[in-house]
Write a structure and sequence with these properties.
Blueprint (H helix, E strand, L loop, with lengths): L9 H7 L13 H7 L5 H4 L5 E8 L5 E8 L6 E7 L14 H10 L2 E5 L11 H15 L1 H4 L1 E11 L1 H15 L7 E5 L10 H5 L9 H12 L22 E9 L3 H13 L4 E10 L2 H4 L4 H18 L7
Parallel strand pairs: 3-4, 3-5, 5-6, 6-7, 7-8
Antiparallel strand pairs: 1-2, 2-4
Helix pairs in contact: 4-12, 5-7
């Protein structure tokens, strides 16, 4: 029996027909996939008034964590977007999906800081989210140097980066800082249990991201752990109270749809503020892969408008 699932947006379906799709990831495929999981950042900077700085910050074990800082010229008291890349916890780098926050640099004059956390399976457990938190601490501690308003730091990420952004935000709440004005979770990977209706709908078929791929990513990062930290799998957090205002979006035709809806619902239930958008016909990462498609343009515009409202100095939400 064929599993019923939401149809793809017609324009996106036509574009996706030219993309080689898979059902699963095997360990021997990972090195090759990592080679395709990022693109050079230089073409994205051409024609933009952007200053770029590369640096590293130390993890507690001495590992150097790379950060890229992209700033408008001479920022003063600017908002900051702390960006965490996607890649299923197993691939990608700090330039993956970087066009998304660079659009926010143009829109609201934000300083964008992107972190290159370690990847699974070489790194496991809380290492990835700890790396991201360490970079965030550096940003908050160097706000004056960066020209950043410490009251307007946004944590944002896509896919696995969205899950790590949610984990970092929980850490900041529980550990007493830094202060986070908002979190932007783009089709976030939030739940290691991988057992929602949407997860089962996108199993056993070629897609951008399937239930089987998701299982590989989670198995790689958990490394056989029996107790899973909510900072790694934020959907397991018992309490979502006290979080900053949150933006969550995803497509109807993707694995993460239901866990993302549930996360926003639980923020509301805890008395928090979340804006949720589920884009009809969108597959996983549709607006990152095809930013000029009609649905992608709408999703990006809506996300940017929300961010501009939240980052307004007069916003009541911050």
């Amino acid at each position: 029996m064929t599993t019923p699932r939401p149809a793809l947006d017609p324009e996106l379906r036509a574009l996706l027909a030219d993309l080689p799709l898979m059902t699963e990831i095997r360990p021997e495929m990972l090195a090759r996939l990592r080679g395709f999981s990022s693109a050079p950042v230089e073409p994205l900077l051409e024609g933009r008034a952007v200053d770029r700085r590369e640096l590293t910050v130390p993890a507690p074990d001495g590992t150097r964590i790379p950060l890229s800082v992209f700033s408008p010229p001479s920022p003063v008291n600017a908002p900051c977007v702390y960006w965490i890349h996607g890649g299923g916890m197993v691939m990608g780098d700090r330039f993956s999906q970087i066009d998304i926050p660079l659009d926010w640099l143009d829109l609201v004059g934000a300083v964008v800081v992107s972190v290159d956390h370690r990847l699974a399976p070489e790194a496991t457990g809380t290492t990835l989210v700890d790396d991201c938190y360490r970079g965030l601490l550096w940003v908050a501690e160097h706000a004056d140097e960066l020209g950043v308003d410490p009251a307007r730091i946004v944590v944002a990420g896509a896919s696995a980066g969205g899950g790590l952004a949610a984990g970092v935000t929980l850490m900041a709440r529980d550990l007493g800082g830094p202060s986070i004005a908002a979190q932007v979770l783009v089709c976030p990977m939030l739940d290691h249990r991988n057992d929602t209706t949407s997860s089962r709908q996108f199993s056993g078929i070629p897609a951008v991201w399937t239930r089987e791929m998701n299982e590989f990513g989670w198995r790689s990062v958990l490394g056989g752990l029996t107790e899973v930290s909510p900072y790694v799998s934020p959907a397991t957090a018992d309490d979502l109270a006290g979080l900053p205002t949150t933006y969550v979006d995803a497509g109807t035709a993707e694995v993460f749809r239901d866990e993302d809806v549930d996360y926003a619902t639980r923020i509301w239930a805890a008395g928090g503020q979340a804006e949720l958008h589920i884009w009809a016909g969108g597959f996983h990462g549709f607006d990152a892969l095809y930013p000029r498609a009609g649905l992608s343009v709408s999703a990006r515009r809506t996300r940017g408008e929300w961010l501009a409202r939240v980052l307004s100095p007069t916003s009541a939400e911050v």
